[in-house]
Amino acid sequence: MKHLEAGQTVLLRLTGAADLAARVDAVGEDDATLILLTPPLRPPTTGGSAAVEVTTPRGIVTIKVRIAAHDGRGSVRVEPAAEPGEAPAVQRRDFVRVGANVPVVVRDGGPEGPAHEVFSLNVSGNGLLISGISHLTVGDFAWVAIDLEDGTPAIEALVVVVRELDRGRRAVRIQSISARDEQRMVRFSFAQQQRARLARDA
User: Fold this and answer.
1) Hey, what domains does the chain have and what are their CATH numbers?
2) What is the pTM of this model?
3) How far, in Å, CA of 89 to CA of 33, rounded?
């Protein structure tokens, strides 16, 4: 299956169920085996439609698949669902990105993994630049809780590292977030942009 390689971390989007982070275990010409990184509330439905999202230099590539088999625990085999020759969808969403230094708790290895308390350097509606997570590399997934310091609950999201910078800085793209929290991120970004513009004009 094109775009998939053993060892990659991907997102498995199931119809009518929560998105699941997974690692590509094996890739064949017409199928791929994924190891789920978080246990699902219920096993995927054999024959059900789904999509695999993988981050590439072109953007996020979405591959339509169907669930060919699963072991009821953590291994899922998927097969292409698109017509032969149909190109996978490439998503590129543009959001305003602004400087913002807010607390972020990063957990890798699962939502209950060890917490790393760090800070963002900038934010947008679909990603962040975070300092202090040099142990993560491109393609790694992590769970984050972003404190906007406005008295509201932290925004929680699943992110993937898309770029490594020096001094432990990592650019991450939001892979899974509730619609409500995405809107909060967008509103926060625009508010920060307006403050910066007013400060420049003062």
Assistant:
1) 9-91 (2.30.110.70), 98-201 (2.40.10.220)
2) 0.57
3) 21
